[in-house]
From TrEMBL:
GO molecular function, one term: neurexin family protein binding
Localization annotation: Cell membrane
Span list, region Disordered: 1-34
GO cellular component, one term: exocytic vesicle
Primary localization: membrane
Keyword Lipid metabolism recorded: no
Native organism taxonomy: Eukaryota, Metazoa, Chordata, Craniata, Vertebrata
Protein name: Synaptotagmin-like protein 2
Length: 365
């Protein structure tokens, strides 16, 4: 999923964690100017960081394609011929609007994705398109070719219909049979990405809860949460050594843009040092049990941002303000950090936590 890149000026601000006075049970929202978010919109707003829906449609059918390396052009040619017996995204009318997308892995961002045109209203689309990659043969032999089939609906949302992966390291380029069109059965995604099971690196950070005393009252009624993002270590390299990473923070359940703060981008290193402190104010003691700090690390490249990994720091109860939510899923290490912060006000609590795969809540306008 690409994530709109904006200037970093907003990241130094602090945001009000306000509440709706008439309805204490309403969903708490971070920013007094961002308006209330309904319960249903937040609980239903979790999506994959990958652009598309992996879970809903059955994977079936086959794809016919051929690959060839053209030495004179130093190009890999992927000839996508057709698919047959695809799953129907529109069950009633028994049809889909499919297209084929290709990547060279593991450097997904380096060579970019190539895709065919969308063929509408069919389960047996014919493409007869050549997708070309300019790449040295020696480098090609270290890659995997991923072809995936997707349905694109009228709102430009994508649904996964299946994929095939070829290991080019073991591919026999001299065998003429390998240049012929072949049928391959489409397979399900075993994981959203090869990074799923791999190390995504770590984040060094510190949190502090600062209660705000109110004149004339002994006990503070609200406080600030300070988040000090120090550095990341061993981030995954999606584009070789061209990493340009930044960290974004929101306090769930508020997914509005006004809840978002972020660091500057640090380039050309897998161990970026940010030393950036973010402040959120207006936390009541009871908000600390319902809210969750979501920190995500992104690689900014051209006009898109690629997700690298993230943390969700909270009590991990699975609920927020009485509603079951997917994002209240903190690991035991993340919970331990939040507990220490809540129990030790006015003290920086430091930790180094492993970054993980997250389902990211959509940012509301």
């Amino acid at each position: 999923m690409s994530d709109d890149r904006e200037t970093d000026t907003a990241s130094e601000s602090s945001y009000q964690f306000s509440r709706h006075k008439k309805s204490p049970s309403s969903l708490t929202n971070l920013s007094s100017s961002s308006g209330m978010t309904s319960l249903s919109s937040v609980s239903g707003s979790v999506m994959s960081v990958y652009s598309g829906d992996f879970g809903n449609l059955e994977v079936k059918g086959n794809i016919q394609f051929a690959i060839d390396y053209v030495d004179s052009l130093k190009e890999l040619h992927v000839f996508v011929a057709q698919c047959k017996d695809l799953a129907a995204a529109d069950v009633k009318k028994q049809r889909s609007d499919p297209y084929v997308k290709t990547y060279l892995l593991p450097d997904k961002g380096k060579m970019g994705k190539k895709k065919t045109l969308v063929v509408k209203k069919t389960l047996n689309p014919v493409y007869n398109e050549i997708l070309r990659y300019k790449i040295e043969k020696q480098i090609l032999k270290t890659q995997k070719l991923n072809l995936s089939v997707w349905h694109r609906d009228t709102f430009k949302r994508n649904s996964f219909l299946g994929e095939v992966e070829l290991d080019l390291e073991t591919w026999d380029w001299d065998n003429k049979q390998n240049k012929q069109l072949k049928w391959y059965p489409l397979k399900r995604k075993t994981a959203p990405t090869a990074l799923e099971a791999e190390n995504r690196g770590e984040m060094k950070l510190a949190l502090q809860y600062v209660p705000e005393p109110i004149p004339g009252k002994k006990l503070p009624t609200t406080g600030e949460v300070h988040i000090w993002v120090k550095e990341c270590v061993d981030l995954p390299q999606l584009r070789g050594s061209h990493l340009n990473s930044f960290v974004k923070c929101i306090i769930l359940p508020d997914t509005s843009r006004k809840s978002r703060q972020k660091t500057r981008a640090v380039g050309k290193t897998t161990n970026p040092v940010f030393n950036h402190t973010m402040v959120y104010d207006g936390f009541r003691p009871e908000d600390l049990t319902e809210a969750c700090v979501e920190l995500t690390v992104w690689d900014h490249y051209k006009l898109t941002n690629q997700f690298l990994g993230g943390l969700r720091i909270g009590f991990g109860t699975g609920k927020s303000y009485g509603t079951e939510v997917d994002w209240m899923d903190s690991t035991s290490e993340e919970v331990a950090l939040w507990e220490k912060m809540v129990n030790s006000p006015n003290t920086w609590i430091e930790a180094t936590l492993p970054l993980r795969m997250l389902l990211i809540a959509k940012i509301s306008k």
